[in-house]
Design a protein that fits this description.
With about 450 residues, the protein is mostly helical. Among the domains are: about 1-35, no CATH class; about 40-125 and about 410-450, no CATH class; about 190-325, no CATH class. It contains 20 helices and no strands. The chain has helices at about 20-25, 30-35, 40-75, 80-105, 120-125, 125-140, 145-155, 155-165, 165-185, 190-205, 210-225, 225-245, 245-255, 260-285, 290-310, 310-325, 325-350, 355-370, 375-410, 410-450. Helix 3 runs antiparallel to helix 4.
Length: about 450
């Protein structure tokens, strides 16, 4: 059995570095090592090649022996049969030698002679790699080929039928949930919070909010949506006045001049309180109260100013900037991400959560539609074809260079031995067939020549 260890090559500098050590220092060393080692299957193939070589060589020796014996018999006065056998054996030798030369020339120089165009694989290995890469690029990585193959597969319908099975939808849902949990776990809260806060702040700074708020307020007033808020405020104000009447009167009395009599101050305070309570009560109970109309007009004017008045819009923008700049607002924005992440992670972990149930239902629905709707199948196939064509056309050079560079990184001698181990047995049949066909051809030619009296 031949040695399977990588041979030592000094590379011309006497360093004695092994092929495996040299290839391990380069990218793709694992692939290169695979071409410098032989597995048990490779060894079995090499033994098969050696057996076939012995068989083909044995047939060459056999026809050589037959030729020698028949030539001796012919000169010794044997019958005409000796000529026929001799011709067949002679042609068999020629065919066997010719095919031996052709097969041997693929892998090494016959008899070690520097004959041109021999040892094709070890000497032309890199060129073969380039040719193989070009062949793959032209015949397998072209747009038409990719589209035809994907269209023939019918990925859209197959994917739809697969997704329509509940077990498969459960599996996809579980994988998506695991991927989502992993992504959210890997992300650092501080980084995401900073990004979200910056994005919201930048978006708010870039857009002027006053016109939008003005249009919204104008529509709310036109639809009467503000009336409930007014009812609530007036009702709460009435209740507060009823409960804190003394406080209101004390406040009025405390604001009176010091030279006025106290009973006058008390009377004024009571009068103010009663009028204020009456006003609030009427405003609460009368939808058509003049104060409500005045409030409507005020809100309409304010909505108009928000949309068209320069000073009002500038004030709103300054207020917006001040509010967004407050630490409390930034902390609130940051806390939103924490709450959302926690909610999503919990939902992804719970198999009965609404999130996972909805995803599963959506996948089943999508699968059924894809399996039965030709239009959706066409869209899916078109998307996949477009994506595959983009990858192939954009990275064709990189894909073919992978083949070329990989072949170029292989050791020539071990590559030759490995290729011979895989195809050498079939090539030895060429030698055997050459011997047989040559013998039959020689016999036929000799017979025809004898028939014509040659």
């Amino acid at each position: 059995m031949e040695q399977t260890k990588p041979e030592i090559s000094d590379g011309g500098d006497g360093s004695g570095v092994s092929v495996a050590a040299a290839t391990a220092a380069r990218p793709g060393a694992a692939v290169n090592r695979a071409m410098t080692t032989f597995s048990a299957a490779d060894e079995e193939k090499r033994r098969g090649v050696r057996r076939m070589k012995l068989t083909a060589t044995g047939m060459l020796l056999f026809v050589t022996l037959v030729y020698a014996l028949t030539e001796w018999a012919s000169h010794a006065g044997a019958g005409a049969w000796a000529g026929y056998v001799s011709a067949a054996a002679e042609a068999g030798m020629v065919g066997a030698l010719a095919d031996w030369f052709a097969v041997t020339a693929l892998f090494r120089r016959p008899l070690g002679l520097p004959i041109p165009h021999t040892a094709i694989i070890p000497t032309k290995k890199d060129q073969l790699g380039v040719s193989l890469g070009e062949f793959v690029g032209e015949n397998f990585l072209s747009e038409d080929v990719v589209r035809q193959r994907l269209r023939a597969v019918g990925i859209g319908s197959r994917l739809g039928a697969w997704l329509a099975v509940p077990e498969h939808a459960d599996r996809v849902t579980a994988e998506l949930s695991a991927a989502l949990r992993g992504a959210l776990t890997v992300l650092r809260d501080t980084d995401v919070q900073a990004v979200v806060g910056e994005a919201i702040t930048r978006r708010a700074d870039a857009a002027e909010i006053a016109p939008g708020v003005g249009k919204m307020l104008e529509k709310v007033v036109a639809d009467g949506g503000h009336k409930r808020a007014v009812d609530l405020v007036v009702s709460r104000a009435h209740d507060w006045l009823v409960l804190h009447g003394d406080s209101v009167m004390d406040a009025v009395q405390g604001g009176a001049p010091g030279w006025t009599p106290r009973f006058v101050d008390r009377k004024v305070g009571e009068r103010v309180y009663k009028e204020l309570l009456r006003f609030v009560t009427e405003m609460r109970d009368m939808p058509a109260h003049p104060a409500r109309g005045a409030l409507d007009r005020f809100l309409n004017d304010f909505a108009s100013d928000l949309q068209s008045d320069t000073d009002t819009r500038a004030r709103v923008e300054r207020l917006k900037t001040e509010v967004l700049g407050r630490d409390e607002v930034q902390d609130l924005i940051a806390s939103v991400w924490t709450a959302v992440r926690s909610m999503i992670v919990s939902a992804a972990e719970d198999e009965r959560s609404e999130l996972r149930l909805r995803v599963r239902t959506s996948l089943l629905s999508l699968g059924r539609r894809m399996a039965s709707d030709d239009r959706i199948q066409g869209k899916v196939d078109s998307w996949l074809e477009g994506a595959a064509v983009y990858v192939v056309t954009t990275y064709r050079k990189e894909i073919t260079s992978l083949i070329t560079d990989t072949v170029a990184g292989w050791d020539a001698e071990h590559t030759t031995k490995k290729i011979e181990a895989n195809i050498g047995r079939d090539l030895q049949f060429i030698r055997i067939n050459g011997t047989v066909v040559g013998s039959l051809a020689g016999l036929l030619i000799y017979t025809v020549a004898r028939g014509f009296g040659a």
